TrEMBL record:
Coiled coil: none annotated. This is Phosphoribosylglycinamide formyltransferase. It catalyses: N(1)-(5-phospho-beta-D-ribosyl)glycinamide + (6R)-10-formyltetrahydrofolate = N(2)-formyl-N(1)-(5-phospho-beta-D-ribosyl)glycinamide + (6S)-5,6,7,8-tetrahydrofolate + H(+). InterPro entries: Formyl_transf_N, Formyl_transf_N_sf, GART, GART_AS. It comes from the Bacteria. It holds the Pfam family Formyl_trans_N. One of its GO terms (biological process) is 'de novo' IMP biosynthetic process. GO terms for molecular function: phosphoribosylglycinamide formyltransferase activity.
Amino acid sequence: ARRVVVLISGNGSNLQALIDAQQHDQLGGEIVAVISNQPDAYGLKRARDAGIDAVALPHREYESRDAFDGALIKVIERHEPDLVVLAGFMRFLTPRFVQRFLGRMINIHPSLLPDYQGLQTHARALADGVSEHGCSVHFVTEELDGGPVALQAVVAVAENDTEATLKAKVQAREHLIMPIAVKWCLEGRLRFGPKGVTFDGTPLPPQGLR
Ligand code: GAR
């Protein structure tokens, strides 16, 4: 089976969506390890409950970003993944780390990239009065939240939406597109190479598949 390593920092609701998909034979592979830089992340419990190897790698115990990323590379490579999935992993990554897994690492971000890179995406979208918001799965490159988009889901912003309601709506879509993106990557349908992101060999537009 194809092998997936998932990196998290917190709740792990996207991880849960991947676990659920796997349990329904809809992931196209197996989550072989979950790694968190936050030792108390709830997602680690989700992994253990599903019988998945759960690893806490507290970044605070490393003296530099490079030392942490080096340790992270070692743990990941021990599990020989076909795909590395960042699911709410809230750490900047060094170029060395990104290069190591280039084309084999995806991230989920709570906005319609390239809009609202960084944090507080829902609050900023609301403040701007946008009518559409959403989430993106993208391949990870050295540019933070700037890698090419593979998949997006769009939600309509309602007049009475708050940060909390908008976040809930977007997260429901994250849980929908994350397992699909993983499956298509593992099947080799979704690729990131010299021609950019392709689906079944056809280059995708900047917003990816919607
Ligand atoms: C998700 O909403 C994800 O889009 C976001 O963190 C949340 C993690 O939730 N990621 C980022 O903001 C990345 N910059 P989860 O732990 O419940 O999956």
